[in-house]
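DM from R.C. (forwarded with permission)

"hey, sorry to bug you on a friday — could you get me a structure for this? deadline for the figure draft is monday and I only need the backbone to look sensible"
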Amino acid sequence: MLPLPLPLIRVLDLTTSVAGASASRMLADFGAEVIVVERPRAARDVVAQYGRNKFSCAIDVSAAASQDLLLRLGAACHLVLVDAGEEAGIGYAALRALRDDIVLVSIGEGGARPGVGNVAAAAAMTALFHVRFRGKGQQVNVSLPALGVSMRSAAIVAASAGATTSSPDLPPSGCYACSDGLLALVVRSVEQLAALGEVIGRPEQVDAVTGGEELREAVAAWAAPRSARDAAAALRKAGIAAQELLTSVDLRDDPHLRARGVFEPVASGSGVSEVEGPRRRFTDTPLHTRLPAPAYGEHTAAVLQGALGLSDAEIVVLAASGVVGSAPEGAQ
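My reply, with the result:
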């Protein structure tokens, strides 16, 4: 098997957010050993969706006796992911006292958005790169408000100079109902408006300022009897950005996604199913789904033995005290 891009890196994921799960999934896809700490009372929707290539360790982080265990587990890792304000009792100062090269990534507002997780993963890898060459760890903070500002930087610069900006999208940009679904289109120039008028057979209604609503109605009438795919193709041919909106079934059957190998067969206890695989493509270090999403606490003993060197007897004591578990609360 070829080496993966991010080998020999151990990550502790203490997050319960979508962004945290997305960040650790990217790191796991790249070859990191990702240990997800699962709470007895937590829903598993995030783990099921973002759990590929990860190991599940069931620890009741609310138990006082778990704090030392979590701190030791964090210090056995190169990187720890936390939701801001939910550090499970192990902050950066405590971790760094045990390991000078530890990286702690804290995800603030915007934890419900996977895109924040992508930024967090990139920041984590940058911090790990810094560790490699400088030998020092650090804390990294990521939040949606700060990312949102970066996406609006041009408008902010213009506003600071006393200017104003508006959306570059012109009417009739938006979504339209077709015979079999929805069509999305974007118009950003008078030239594209003219092309749109030609495509829909209404060149006299291309004035976005004075005839905006009439133009929307004309586009809607043109799109209604056509399939979304055919309508999008006609608009793209004329130089207008357009795309049919795909359902989950459409995405699963899309020939382009199939050709790129986006979906991979994975064996689990319930049989073989297709799952979304890693999206990035590397020529020398190809990524694949190596492990399906784990069952709750599936790897608890293996993690505690491998990362901390605990014996079977010590793990039995932790389980008896309720610090570690093998099934979520309420499970049969």
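R.C.: lifesaver. DSSP finds 14 helices and eleven strands in the chain.
me: no worries. Residues 170-249 form a domain with the formyl-coa transferase, domain 3 fold (CATH 3.30.1540.10).
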